[in-house]
């Protein structure tokens, strides 16, 4: 038969390899969770930036009009899909619509948008003159920006809570230890702090 010999070093190596593999899997799980959380936060921040670009200030920018939706021939298209946008300082936006049949629909979409401006049609060209901001409008903008920022913060807190629940669930299911739980929560909070 075979002889059996007990070698404590081999036993230690085997157990260490198992613990290392389990530890590595745990680290990967936490890293994956944090990466997913970071992606969600990036989406919230990108949405916040886009909202801010859509708020009309005293300075014209193509971002104000490029994503306005136009119902043209039964399709919903954006202004940037229908024409080229240029800025004529100090407060004018010019949109050269490529298809003259789309000019009316584009002008109507601009006038009914949240910009609150009128569109002047000159052939294929739509001119938008941004009026000067009044003190009242400035105060409205400050409130609007504050509201948009608060909505983004609420989304961030929601994603943070969701990620922390996943860490807690992994701990309850004994997929991770207490050290990994605290490390995961700490990493999640560090991402939030970096964003704030």
Short summary of the structure?
This protein has helices at 8-54, 79-82, 103-112, 135-172, 178-195, and strands at 69-72, 75-78, 83-88, 92-97, 119-122, 125-129.
Features:
elongated, alpha+beta, single chain, 15% strand, 196 residues, 5 helices
Helix content: 55-70%
Say what oligomer this is. Answer: single chain
Shape: elongated
Strand order, sheet with most strands: 3-4-6-5
Mean pLDDT: 84
Low-confidence stretches: 13-22
Task: State the separation between the terminal residues, measured CA to CA.
Answer: 69 Å
Total DSSP E strands: 6
- Alpha carbon gyration radius: 28 Å
Strand content: 5-15%
Number of helices: 5
Order of helices and strands: HEEHEEHEEHH
**Main beta-sheet strand count, sense and barrel state:** 4 strands, antiparallel
Q: Classify the secondary structure makeup into a structural class.
A: alpha+beta
